[in-house]
């Protein structure tokens, strides 16, 4: 459990971090909370030769209200998100999801930006980000751009981020009615199935994590929904469902339907 | 009862543990110490074509790199127990090399050892060792290992059997009884493989002193003397008096730290080669891959009943995995620690167990908390409940019908089982009665019925397990006749210092159990002195004369008894000195409250004064040796047999299959209780582990022999929130054959609890026709059981 040798630089601004990323190319990795990256390094599954620590960049640390939106900096920890009054008031499902992540130590260190960039197919936030129709703000050497949540997650550990880009913040439209439901994997306590639902009148948006190699919007459920939870039957329509020793694809698909139903009914 | 025995005295050792001041092997940093890292095989079965260490040797900080081609290649660690085939063929005992030579036999087997100045350098250099493998097909399932076309783990034998074995009545007789039975209940299941998961990974430091030509081996072991014996006499061939083995604090073992491991021998060998201390500590991944696992039995069993539900006989055929090599106690686990418990607490007249123990391309399997008895208990307690379910008899009632009647082993004889052992004393129905009362069994059944009808999606179930186990191991002559290559007595030395303070040296070893407290309690009471005047020493072969260590819930029953023997000798000699000083005859003295008194007078002399006299023998009995220091060996006359009732209440989510353990009631009988808080702690911990097996834990190897549950992301251990508050009570049936009347409490929790939980889940689903579910009862398995 000892990583290979690496250099470490603490970045003091987003610009500096991007410059360093650009300069060192694929050998460099951004370090935020370290709770996905460092375990992988200790197992030598990931051996960057330089770590660019962005955790000290204050500008990535804020949670603010901007009109109809809440903007959350990439560096905000799970704990800061769970405890934020703004998040609790306008994005209750995000606070709930944050509270299901790992344990206290993990929540004290792990960040929203880190979780999204890491793109673990069983991570909790992606379901919420999708259901909220949030926008991921990224910055790279060619400037800033906004990526819609639906375009961001591309597969297991793969996202729309370019090599020289970092996530700076996530813009969430305020939510009046929504919730997050999770079925815990008994060892890791990541989501076997995690479902976020946001309701907007008769419209509903459903984000699902844990079920496929990338989190997805359950559009078949959204289309079938007319105020009745039976739409949950479509939870995995057109989706290739993952299988492992905790949940094979049949059982996982079943759980997806159960948890979409529970989230629609909640 | 004295001043301390029977009281919930807080553990002395916790002061240092809670402050992070424990002294674990990995905490030690010796002058000039080097670090070792292993190159381990990523394949389960492969030929080693070549190993190239040249790049590693040139890496920064590297002191040496070893492969089997170096001197250590000739050594292997031995097995400590021999179980021969039924037809008389000798047990097949492969060499278990310190480093793999030509062939790999399990994922994680070490191929090369890299020694460097720092751990970082050792790890980096290990990555530079180039090994060329030719991967071969592997077999990890014990039953498949015995199929005709299974790949051979050891090429020198025609099949993978290490041995086979049977016990009990004649098979034909048992089969006839089953054929004539009113009802036969059948079961087929895998008692799944478990990883031991001690919180402290294994850690070894060998320090070779060139000038003295002596070694000190610091090791996280449960039995330092046994390690020294095996290491010196059976592995490296070095003189035993040249080696000191020290195991200070050890962070849990659950059996996995009994065995003599290859890494332990290798650091010892390397430290002489390089003339410097060398340390190796497993990381968690290595622990999963290399600590001896537990269980892994494939079981097919039948139990026959008469109309009333009385058991007529039981027959079981089992494939019990040994892994790639025979670990220290491995052959004893599915045989003498397993088959001998098939009587359970019932009057079953006919019993037959047949075991085939194959090699598999996995890490070795050996004793894990309970060792063979949890497997026996799981089968018995599941199959009797399944029988009851099938026959429409209540699970408690069928047990009452079959219990062995109470016997105390004093006025009534011990109970002779069909499977060699004679139980010491027991009152099995008493624990079940108490357990049912604690639970409120009648009321529960009503609540269960209501839950089934109210349709909130939750099903309730209750499961009973009335277990017995055999511990306090063991009478040496008995185990010797059964194939043990060591005696299983214990040693206890009581050294009274001139000031009357007492140092006790025990060959038992505490790795979390609390010996330093419990042993001090009964020693202080036996001598009538304050507990503060007693210190318990263990875990150092240079301090403690000899010992066999701690496992099989033996410390108090065997180790405690050895100490009591020495205390008797102390008091006998002390009485001579006291009589001399008091100018009385020994026969007129009585010993109480730390002093000898001339009966019927107020003339007395304190323990402290007698101690001082023994060491300053100016005015002293003629012909008596000075000093007050005795050592004793205690070899028990029988095993001890704790028993009890565990009852679980579960709630099952109909939609997801998730099991929620709502209540856990345990009424155990561990004989006399020295410290109820520590007994409760042992029972609680054991129950947590048993619940882990029932609901969560499983080592999974895929078809290629890759372990796919080798981290805490994939191997589910029980956590605090998986458990309810455990409700405990006890009955007390003293052990009739040891001086403390104790039976042992270390494993009972893990033995009794597993079937209780599974019985409860099956009970919750019984109205759906579910009669069995394979462990661990993951939500997926429970949900699937409901769908069929
Ligand atoms: C024991 C344990 C339990 C856990 N349980 C859960 C759980 O239940 N649910 C869950 O969802 N997660 C869980 N996690 C993961 C946890 O939430 C991590 O904190 C999170 O996935 C990563 O965030 P981080 O800040 O720690 O990122 P890091 O580990 O520092 O980085 C992760 C990756 O993201 C990149 N990165 C980080 N920040 C940025 C950025 N701003 N822009 C671009 N790239 C970036 C890094 O280069 C790296 O590749 C668990 C982790 C552990 C160790």
TrEMBL record, chain A:
UniProt source species: Poritiphilus flavus
Domain of life of the organism encoding this protein: Bacteria
Signal peptide: none
SMART domains (alphabetical): CO_deh_flav_C (SM01092)
Alphabetical UniProt keywords: FAD, Flavoprotein, Oxidoreductase
One Pfam family per UniProt: CO_deh_flav_C
Protein name per the record: Xanthine dehydrogenase family protein subunit M
Domain FAD-binding PCMH-type: 1-177
From TrEMBL, chain B:
PANTHER family (alphabetical): ALDEHYDE OXIDASE 1-RELATED, XANTHINE DEHYDROGENASE
Oxidoreductase among keywords: yes
UniProt key word Oxidoreductase: yes
GO molecular function: iron ion binding; oxidoreductase activity
Lineage: Bacteria, Pseudomonadati, Bacteroidota, Flavobacteriia, Flavobacteriales
Domain of life: Bacteria
The protein's name: Molybdopterin-dependent oxidoreductase
Keyword line: Molybdenum, Oxidoreductase
Domain Aldehyde oxidase/xanthine dehydrogenase a/b hammerhead, residue spans: 19-137
InterPro entries: Ald_Oxase/Xan_DH_a/b, Ald_Oxase/Xan_DH_a/b_sf, Ald_Oxase/xanthine_DH-like, AldOxase/xan_DH_MoCoBD1, AldOxase/xan_DH_MoCoBD2, AldOxase/xan_DH_Mopterin-bd_sf
Organism, scientific name: Poritiphilus flavus
Pfam families named in the record: Ald_Xan_dh_C (PF01315), MoCoBD_1 (PF02738), MoCoBD_2 (PF20256)
């Amino acid at each position: 459990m000892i990583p290979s040798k690496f250099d470490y630089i603490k970045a003091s601004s987003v610009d500096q971090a991007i410059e360093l990323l650009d300069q060192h190319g694929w050998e460099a990795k951004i370090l935020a909370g370290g709770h996905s990256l460092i375990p992988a390094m200790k197992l030598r599954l990931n051996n960057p030769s330089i770590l660019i620590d962005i955790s000290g960049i204050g500008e990535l640390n804020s949670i603010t209200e901007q009109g109809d939106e809440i903007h959350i900096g990439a560096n905000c920890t799970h704990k800061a998100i769970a405890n934020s009054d703004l998040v609790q008031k306008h994005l209750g499902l995000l606070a709930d999801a944050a509270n299901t992540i790992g344990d206290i130590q993990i929540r004290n260190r792990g960040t929203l930006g880190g979780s999204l960039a890491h793109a673990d197919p069983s991570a909790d936030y992606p379901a919420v980000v999708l259901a909220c129709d949030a926008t991921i703000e990224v910055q790279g050497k060619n400037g800033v751009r906004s990526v819609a949540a639906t375009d961001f997650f591309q597969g297991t550990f793969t996202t729309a981020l370019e090599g020289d880009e970092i996530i700076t913040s996530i813009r969430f439209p305020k939510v009046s009615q929504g919730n997050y439901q999770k079925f815990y994997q008994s060892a890791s306590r990541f989501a076997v199935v995690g479902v976020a639902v946001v309701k907007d009148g008769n419209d509903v948006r459903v984000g699902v994590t844990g079920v496929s190699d990338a989190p997805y919007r359950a559009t078949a459920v959204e289309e079938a929904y007319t105020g009745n939870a039976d739409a949950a039957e479509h939870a995995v329509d057109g989706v290739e469902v993952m299988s492992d020793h905790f949940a094979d694809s049949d059982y996982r698909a079943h759980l997806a339907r159960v948890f979409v139903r529970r989230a629609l009914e909640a | 009862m004295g001043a301390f025995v029977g009281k919930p005295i807080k553990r002395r050792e916790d002061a240092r543990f809670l402050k992070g001041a424990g002294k674990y092997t990995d905490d030690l940093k010796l002058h000039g110490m080097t670090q070792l890292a292993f190159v381990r095989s990523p394949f389960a079965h492969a030929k080693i074509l070549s190993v190239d260490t040249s790049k590693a040797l040139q890496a920064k900080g590297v002191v040496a790199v070893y492969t089997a081609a170096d001197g250590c290649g000739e050594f292997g660690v031995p097995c400590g127990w021999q179980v021969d085939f039924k037809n008389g063929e000798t047990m097949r005992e492969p060499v278990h090399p310190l480093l793999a030579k030509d062939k790999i036999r399990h994922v994680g087997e070490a191929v090369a050892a890299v020694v460097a100045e720092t751990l970082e350098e050792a790890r980096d250099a290990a990555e530079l060792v180039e090994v060329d493998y030719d991967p071969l097909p592997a077999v990890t399932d014990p039953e498949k290992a015995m199929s005709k076309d299974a790949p051979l783990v050891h090429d020198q034998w025609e099949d993978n059997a290490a041995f086979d074995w049977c016990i009990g009545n004649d098979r034909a007789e048992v089969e006839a009884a089953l054929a004539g039975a009113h009802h036969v209940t059948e079961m087929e299941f895998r008692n799944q493989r478990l990883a031991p998961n001690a919180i402290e990974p294994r850690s070894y430091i060998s320090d070779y002193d060139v000038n003295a030509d002596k070694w000190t081996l610091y090791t996280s072991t449960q039995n330092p003397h046994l390690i020294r014996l095996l290491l010196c006499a059976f592995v490296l061939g070095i003189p035993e008096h040249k080696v000191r083995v020290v195991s200070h604090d050890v962070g849990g073992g659950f059996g996995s730290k009994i065995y003599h491991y290859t890494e332990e021998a290798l650091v010892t060998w390397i430290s002489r080669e390089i003339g410097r201390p060398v340390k190796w500590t497993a990381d968690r991944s290595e622990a999963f891959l290399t600590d001896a696992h537990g269980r892994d039995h494939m079981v097919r069993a039948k139990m026959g009943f008469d109309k009333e539900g009385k058991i007529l006989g039981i027959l079981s055929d089992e494939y019990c995995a040994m892994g790639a090599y025979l670990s220290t106690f491995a052959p004893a686990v599915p045989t003498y620690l397993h088959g001998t418990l098939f009587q359970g607490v019932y009057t079953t007249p006919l019993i037959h167990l047949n075991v085939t123990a194959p090699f598999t391309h996995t890490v070795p399997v050996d004793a894990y908390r309970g060792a063979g008895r949890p497997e026996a208990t799981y089968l018995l307690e599941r199959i009797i409940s399944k029988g009851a379910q099938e026959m429409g008899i209540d699970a408690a009632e069928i047990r009452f019908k079959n219990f062995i009647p109470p016997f105390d082993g004093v006025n009534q004889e011990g109970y002779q089982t069909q499977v060699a052992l004679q139980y010491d004393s027991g009152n099995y129905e008493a624990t079940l009665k108490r357990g049912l009362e604690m639970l409120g069994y009648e009321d529960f059944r009503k609540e269960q019925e209501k839950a089934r009808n109210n349709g909130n999606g939750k099903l309730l179930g209750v499961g009973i397990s009335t277990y017995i186990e055999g511990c306090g191991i063991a009478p040496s002559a008995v185990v010797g006749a059964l194939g043990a290559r060591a005696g299983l007595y214990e040693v206890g030395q009581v050294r009274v210092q001139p000031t009357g303070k007492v140092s006790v040296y025990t060959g038992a070893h505490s790795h979390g159990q609390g010996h330093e407290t419990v042993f001090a309690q009964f020693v202080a009471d036996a001598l009538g002195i304050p507990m503060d005047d007693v210190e318990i020493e263990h875990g150092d072969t240079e301090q403690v004369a000899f010992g066999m260590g701690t496992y099989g819930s033996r410390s108090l029953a065997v180790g405690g008894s050895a100490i009591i023997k020495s205390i008797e000798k102390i008091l006998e000699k002390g009485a001579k000195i006291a009589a001399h000083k008091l100018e009385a005859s020994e026969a007129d003295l009585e010993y109480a409250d730390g002093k000898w008194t001339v009966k019927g007078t107020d003339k007395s002399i304190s323990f402290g004064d007698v101690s001082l006299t023994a060491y300053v023998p100016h005015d002293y009995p003629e012909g008596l040796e000075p000093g007050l220091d005795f050592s004793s060996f205690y070899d028990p006359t029988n095993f001890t047999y704790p028993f009890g009732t565990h009852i679980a209440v579960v709630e099952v989510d109909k939609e997801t299959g998730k099991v929620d353990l709502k209540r856990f009631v345990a009424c155990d009988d561990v004989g006399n209780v020295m410290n109820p808080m520590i007994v409760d702690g042992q029972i609680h911990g054991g129950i947590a582990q048993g619940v882990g097996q029932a609901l969560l834990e499983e080592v999974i190897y895929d078809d290629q022999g890759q372990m796919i549950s080798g981290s805490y992301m994939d191997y589910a251990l029980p956590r605090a929130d998986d458990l309810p508050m455990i409700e405990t009570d006890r009955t007390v049936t003293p052990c009739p054959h040891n001086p403390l009347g104790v039976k042992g409490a270390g494993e009972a929790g893990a033995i009794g609890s597993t079937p209780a939980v599974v019985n409860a889940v099956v009970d919750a689903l019984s109205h759906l026709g579910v009669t069995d579910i394979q462990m661990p009862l993951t939500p997926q398995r429970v949900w699937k059981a409901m769908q069929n």
